[in-house]
Design a protein that fits this description.
This protein has about 250 residues and is an alpha/beta fold. It contains eight helices and seven strands. The protein has a seven-stranded parallel beta sheet, sandwiched between helices. Helix 1 links the parallel strand 1 and strand 2. The structure holds nicotinamide-adenine-dinucleotide (NAD).
């Protein structure tokens, strides 16, 4: 059977675990070469080792502009360019508006917004060399209401920025055959939310989701494959919710 991402080179940030790791797994299964780019270097190498010869672990900090540029250039040189960037690395902020101190806010913006700026600025030249490309941003349903079940107003604000970035870049980069889309998941039971997800909280959240369960990493990864592939060739600038109907309630 034909693989949707055969011959494509993809860099996925924050891919050592959680949502990003599942996207890496499914991209490799669909024929892509995947750079597992994560702050947690041992975990990035461990996952790459598990995924086989088509995956490569890389220490990568989305906050470090010069480091991101150097890493993307070296990936481009080694692999003849870059086809797909998945901006998945993200931090959560939780609780009332005054629960997030100034330092935590700075770091939240540095990862959730500046990190995307750094990665996009570095990746687009490498995509131009390939004659086109594909950027997928991981937003959150919390962009819609300025905060959600866990993500607070500051988290929701950064994710709203991700959605705006997706719309504008989709428009600007379309003529260069670079598509830009975002995925907005509802709660996914990863390490990011693990400590907050008591049985009671889980039941309360699930009761508000028409399809009656939390999101799985697999739900997000399958949409990422669709958006990264030619199956979605005429879709750009869009943010698609993976939320079991939560935003429609
Ligand atoms: N889990 C959820 O409920 C949920 C819901 C909606 C959206 N999201 C979004 O999905 C994405 C992935 O979330 P997850 O639940 O898999 O998170 P996670 O915390 O399980 O994994 C995040 C990964 O990002 C890496 N990372 C953190 N800072 C980094 C940096 N500066 N540079 C590079 N890598 C860095 C971490 O080492 C980790 O491997 C995030 O953008 C998150 O905001 C998650």
């Amino acid at each position: 059977m034909e693989q949707a991402l055969q011959g494509k080179v993809a860099l996925i940030t924050g891919a050592a675990r959680g949502v990003g790791a599942e996207i890496a797994r499914q991209f490799v299964a669909q024929g892509a070469t995947v750079i597992v780019a994560d702050l947690d270097e041992p975990a990035a190498h461990a996952l790459a080792g598990e995924l086989g010869a088509s995956a490569h672990g890389l220490r990568f900090d989305v906050r470090d502009r010069a480091g991101v540029r150097a890493a993307v250039e070296s990936v481009g040189r080694a692999r003849g360019g870059l086809d797909i960037l998945v901006n998945n690395a993200g931090l959560l902020a939780n609780g009332a508006f005054d629960a997030t101190g100034g330092e935590a806010w700075d770091n939240l913006v540095a990862v959730n917004l500046t990190g995307l700026y750094n990665c996009v600025q570095a990746a687009v030249p490498a995509m131009r060399r390939r004659g086109g490309g594909n950027i997928i941003n991981i937003a959150s349903v919390s962009h819609e209401k300025g905060g959600g079940a866990f993500g607070n107003v500051w988290y929701g604000t950064t994710k709203a920025g991700v959605v705006a970035m997706t719309k504008g870049l989709g428009r600007e980069l379309g003529p260069e055959r670079i598509r830009v889309n975002a995925i907005a998941p509802a709660v996914v039971a990863t390490d990011m939310v693990h400590q907050l997800l008591t049985e009671e909280v889980r039941a309360r959240i699930v009761s508000r989701i028409p399809l009656g369960r939390l999101a799985e990493c697999d739900d997000v990864a399958r949409l990422a494959v669709f958006l990264a592939s030619d199956w979605s060739a005429f879709i750009t600038g869009e943010t698609i919710a993976v939320d079991g109907g939560f935003l429609r309630t």
